[in-house]
Hints:
two-stranded antiparallel ribbon
Amino acid sequence: MKYTKGSLGRVFLLKFEDKDIFIDELRAFALKERLKTACLVFIGALRDGKLATGPRKPVIPPQPNTASFKDGWEVLGLGTVFTNSSGPQIHIHTSMGKKKSVLTGCLRGKSRVFLVIEAVLLELKGVKAGKDIDPRTGLNLLHVF
């Protein structure tokens, strides 16, 4: 295990609105506010999108299972923002439900908000960490310096 320590910076309350592309809006916000590192928690609903729902087999590099969803799902989740030379790197895990169906995974692509998502974003100050493509796994992984 590696670690770094820091402190809390600014705290933001975000409201994403119907048909917003969740990750794109979050990335734009991170750029506007010049966020380097942050974490967020959120609740609300997603209209449609895609999740990576774990690896097909536990091998490196992993090949992801994916699941698409549509027609509005209740969601709750957690995420991180780490900014590197390519800009904000957004990583969101969510659990979602519709009727008796449940999906859990890593949110991908152009997932759109249904009605609203409420999020609390906490800026992390002084942490020495970032994200870049790991050559062994091919994934955009956290690096603690």
